[in-house]
Here is the input.
Amino acid sequence: MIDSLTDSLEQYMNLVSLRQKLVASNIANADTPGYKTQDLDFQASFRSALDGGSPQAVQVSGLKTKNDGNNVDLDREARLLAENAMRFSVASNLMHSAISQVKEAISGGKG
Amino acid sequence: MSLFSALTVSATGMAAQRTRAALLVENIANSETTRTPEGGPYRRKDAIFTTQDVGSAFGTEMDAQLAGSTLSGVNVAGISVDTRDPEKRYMPGHPDADANGYVSIPRINPAEDMVDLVGANRSYQANVSAMSAVKDMIQKSIDLLR
Here is the structure.
């Protein structure tokens, strides 16, 4: 959009919001029999997103499966929910300052 | 890729948990009911949850193009009714007693329903938290325009 930093930030915010959507989906399905927790491999997805690839949701391994075949861990999802919100907040503040700099330049420091 | 579909997902979760809580409360209220329109004592009900793709046709198609996956909400697929035989309690004076003096009482364990109700409540709160976190993220994006 403005420079390479804001391009990366944009990809980062896209990925964080996609991850937040998966977390919301996991929480909504916490009591659905047979549902498996979905998540992103964040590092791999971010690297591929910078090269123009699209992220793929994967099933999370290593979680305890309950008797009904569901493996959603609400504590894990609550942690990710808070973490994603904070990561998004950091990225959006950085983006805001980048935009403010351009605005400042446009107004010639008078604004 | 819009965050609004995450709000829809949380909303389906809240609706499903609300339905479940309503059924559990109905079970507790009717734990001594010996007459129903269908005849016989009340039978325990529970909600059956399934995953359900959310969003409008346009939104779903766009998400599929961008992310290669669609989001799953939750849907109440049906209501299961307990088919076990009711409990028999010896109450000869009761108007619904059979020839031997036994009354059919619903097979409901209040402790089981109370525990499920706490679970439904907790899941509902988790969905509310998710919705609130996503709402804050949307607000942050809007604030970029200021």
Summary: The CA atoms of residues 12 and 109 of chain A lie 30 Å apart. The beta strands of chain A are 38-39, 58-59. The helical segments of chain A are 4-28, 42-50, 74-106.
